[in-house]
Amino acid sequence: MVLLGIDIGTTATKGILLHPEQGLIAEAEAPSTLRSPQAGWAEEDPAEWWANVATVTRACLAQAGIDGSQVAGVGVSGMVPTLILLDREGHVLYPSIQQNDARAYQEIEEFKAQVDEADVLARTGSAITQQSIGPKLLWMRRHHPELMERAAHVLGSYDYIVHRLTGVFSCERNWALESGLFDLRRETWDETLLRLSTIDASWLGEVHWPSDVVGEVTPQAAAHTGLSPGTPVVAGSADHIASAFSAGLKEPGDLLVKLGGAGDILYDLDELVIDPRLFLDYHVIPGKYLLNGCMAASGSIIKWFRQQFAPQADYPELDAAGGAVPPGSEGLVLLPYFLGEKTPIHDPRARGVLFGLTLTHTRGHVYRAILEGIAYGFRHHLAVLAERGLTATKARVTNGGARSQLWKQVTADVLNLPLEPVADHPGSSLGAAFVAGKGVGLFQEWGEIERFIQLAETVEPDPRTQGRYQELFAVYRELYERNKDLFPRLAE
Fold first, then answer.
1. In sequence order, what are the beta bridge partners of 370?
2. Which of 218, 331, 399, 452 registers the highest number of CB atoms within 10 A of its CB?
3. Helix ranges, 125-237 (H)
4. Chain segment 169-201, per-residue pLDDT in tens
5. What is this structure's pTM?
6. Residue burial 234-253, b: 16+ Cβ < 10 Å; e: rest
7. Which residues touch 147 (CB under 8 Å, ≥6 apart)?
8. Measuring CA to CA, which residue among 246, 303, 244 is closest to residue 279?
9. Residues 232, 439: contact at Cβ < 8 Å?
């Protein structure tokens, strides 16, 4: 028997088949489209995800030479906390509003004006930010009241796929926590915040731990995907949490840097720590937590740059051009706030800045400055952790950017940390498959994930870069502080 892990990612839907003894036996992916029809907007189409689920599932089964009857369980991970509205018949009413969408900045201020922010943070573990679901619901109520009148269900990305597979409305607890609507202490929906968001608890699914079996594959979903009717489906996991777990974060002080479309940095805790500048998550392992820094745009900036300014170049060619440029990009500094910014500044009206341009700068300089700007964003998070007395005892790096030696080296240099790349890491889909295995009893201990983790050669920071990056990180920090009052004028 095998396990199917599916990840609903920003740029692709990925699927793997995990054999409990043999490890990964099949993998496939299908592209997803992130749309930004207006500045600060980030949307995706749930129908595309569902079509992709069929594509990758059937591809994995064919690759392994098995049929759906051999799948013992299904786990789904995905971006969090996306906002998907369904009507009473289960039809999607509006494109998924992504976690890095910054359109509801006015509603954020209105929401803050009606509550005690410190009290909300203490109750929910979440500050009121561009990621919060409440202000986005207010935006929908203001701009699409006719759709809100028809709405009956609110789901996240992976909860939506679980619903399409099983017909069940469930809610994995990290979507609940990151939504900003969940009372962390009482472990239930906060009625006051639901009321301010103009919904009630009936719109939300029952909250579950990731490995809880919440339903079975329906005949309709079986016909769509090639799975067998009755296959157990677990609640699943937030993508960054599944990825952190499957990269081996399990001890206090373990750190993960995710070089993905959106950048994540995660820090393992055995105790609850709440900081308004960071997101808080439940670990996959019950009783543990993760502090989460999430940048709205990281790899998506690189993709944008290539599409708009270097469409004939592949990424190795860009890496070669950037690698020929000295550390510091000869005085070029990027603010990576292309979709506003989530942690640690929580400013949905922030904008990207390329500072210091001269006629001597080339495409390679700009490309390297993008990599360095993303790394400065990660370093900003380390500074926040350091203020709380939290330092990394081990640091790993994953996701698509980990295939780039230049991006890994730049990140190690800027952070001044040795980075352990997880080799051939399938990412969140591995964590989702393992969670499914835990739910159906094919795995007994959380530590069994270790047998599926392989590390590549550690990337050591170059001590010769430290002085330069220290100077430019100070410029990076000051650049935002000096310009933050101008960004709203652009947003308006």
1. none
2. 399
3. 133-143, 145-150, 157-166, 173-179, 191-196, 219-225
4. 999 999 999 999 999 999 999 999 999 999 999
5. 0.87
6. bbbbbbbbbbbbbbbbbeeb
7. 85, 93, 94, 140
8. 244
9. yes
- CATH class, range 250-421+462-492: alpha beta
Q: What is the C-alpha separation between 82 and 136, in angstroms, rounded?
A: 10
* Phi-psi domain of 330 (left: phi exceeds 0; alpha: psi -120 through 50; beta: other): left
Residue 426 class from Cβ within 10 Å (0-12 exposed, 13-18 middle, 19+ buried)? buried
CATH of 2-240 among 3.30.420.40, 3.40.50.150, 3.30.750.24, 3.40.1350.10:
3.30.420.40
Buried b (16+ CB within 10 A) or exposed e, 357-388: eeeebebbbbbbbbbbbbbbbbbbbbebbeee
Peptide bond into 344 cis (omega under 30): yes
Cα–Cα distance measured from residue 154 to residue 93, given in angstroms and rounded to the nearest whole number? 11
**3-class DSSP state of 400:** helix
What sign does the dihedral 385-386-392-396 (CA atoms) show? Answer: positive
- Render pLDDT for 220-269 as a digit per residue (tens, 0 to 9): 999 999 999 999 999 999 998 999 999 999 999 999 999 988 899 999 99
User: Which amino acid, one-letter code, is at 482?
Assistant: R
- Tokens 């969090």, located at residue: 80
CATH 3.30.420.40 segments of the chain:
2-240, 250-421+462-492
